[in-house]
């Protein structure tokens, strides 16, 4: 090659440099660069420009800058080459510096200059710079240039000023396909699918034929669950256009269908694509993993390698996301081994994927090993470990990591707070938890919706609904999760009526409830046995077609069962087409609560025949059913089979059920031996369970031992004091009863008063012992007096050992006759139709004398009385109770 005014040596170097076009050629290009420097040719404008261009093509921006500095007289071409390289590689500040230097050096700017520098304006921070460049374009007379106009539309759209982009678009004297693509891309990027689609239709009406890039932008706008119809229409338009759906377009279609929830159509596109790349495979692997098709995801992962495509970090992260439970741990470890074999650098994103996989699969130690092996961690690495420790009971470790991450310079984000707040109200780290909450409040993060929601949840779990309500009220913006959390909190803390009130407030504020709202609302109805309100909620669920959801169905079963309507619970269960372990557990637990152990065991056997594997909750319900019925042998057999036959490790809750079963059967020595031989230290609940059994059978010595151990673990639990006091009262040890009361008063511990309630005509009527506050008190007490006379004639005799105060005999008998459950029954008798069941509910255990009285009343009035107390249901009918006096 020869060129006028250029020496042969220069021409040779320019031709050589023009041949280097890829990163793999960079070393050879640098060797030529060195030779030009040695020969003093690098300062020549043509050679220097060739050097800058070569470095840019080979991806070495630093060498391009070095070559640029060596040029003596720089012209517009070399400036443009460097500015384009800097903008392309994200060195935007340096691109602006070179642009301003170019202007100050008096170099005449051209179209290429403006197109290159506008590419550097890619975020909202660059908007002001973009506006200044726009003014320069106007001054230089380039405003009417279509290419520059398109670049300005893209710049304003990327920088977040869509109104300005739109204004420019509509004022352009001439628009081409790229103009339309630029404005559509702006709205697609902002997830304004409606406007993107409107522009697409306008574009077609003006006779502009969409191209491949147009479709790519539109498909990105349609990549969400609500955009399926539009996405499907775009796909049909692509087919009609004759553009082949390969490469980027095929991948965009897969991604759109996957995100719209139509995995089958994504799979169809995948299978119809001939040239599938790593992105194609990654999209389908991620889709199947996200939709729970873990086996398919792993199968695709293997097929990809069979086609000699090497997985990248995204592939491994996608397939790891499918490992979501302990059963998938071995598979997760195999994938981890494959990552190691591949020689891939364990970057922070892939490291985080491994940490999360091990946490989901229950191996916190493996997660720790990965965490400590990472050379670089980010805030999500720390957040994952904090969440893992919180979920697996290592509360103090979670708090230690929370402070440690900040000491190492990582600022917590919303998800970090959501994770750490799970442990802040646990009894194991209450003081440290208060410090974390104080930190969050002082930093103002509670005003963030996500963090505020997590705070509401934390306060609710600790029973601090006043604090939860305060956070809720202060939140500047609330979402559906905020409402669900506060409703669930009130329901969990026995304030069901308040929860229902909040649900009505939510509707008044036009917040649309979702399935989680209905689950919380049903739990609220269960907590105060509001059957009619529960039925209204059920009707709304059917109206919204949510009854098929697994958790909604289970909550409905639980609500009907806890409201005493076992038949309707069974009906809901029967109508659920696709049942899983949650559904079966709800029905088994319903029968357990009602003391129908044979029914619960029958359902357990049916569940197995249906191929549903029981989990820990299943065994808690079954063991509870055996406890209520005194089925010691059956309970022992089921407990023993948990690990050996079903692979379910017994938890402390399961041991507690077995302790209760043995204690209630008077097998105290076996119960105590079991406690001492548990694989973990007994908690306060286990000792309280044993204490409850001692109260039933009057075992004073063991009751004192159990109470002492329970109080060592939680000295502020009023139930322990009350149970021990009841043991003493039944034995007539009134001095000890008085002593316990003094201790409770000194420690500021209050006994929850006994309350009973009944729902009549959609209104809850609540009573306490000797209550005279009800507007129909006279009628209620008249009914009680009538019943007392008839009961005495039928052979009833008050059992005064259930009076917990040192009173005279006459006062003791009067006290028993006005217990809250009797007042509720009397009100039910005078306000509900004859022959219909009476459903009453009590927050504490029904007293022994009221249990006897209820049997007499059911026979005298010829009505079924269904009573739910804090432990179980009792169905009194024709003088007998469903518990067969074993309770």
From TrEMBL:
Keywords: Repeat. One of its GO terms (molecular function) is RNA binding. It comes from Physcomitrium patens (Spreading-leaved earth moss). PROSITE patterns: PPR. Residues 795-887 form the DYW domain. This is DYW domain-containing protein. The keyword Thylakoid does not apply. GO terms for biological process: RNA modification. PPR repeats lie at residues 75-109, 145-175, 176-210, 277-311, 378-412, 448-478, 479-513, 580-614, 717-751. It comes from the Eukaryota. Pfam families: DYW_deaminase (PF14432), E_motif (PF20431), Eplus_motif (PF20430), PPR (PF01535), PPR_2 (PF13041), PPR_3 (PF13812).
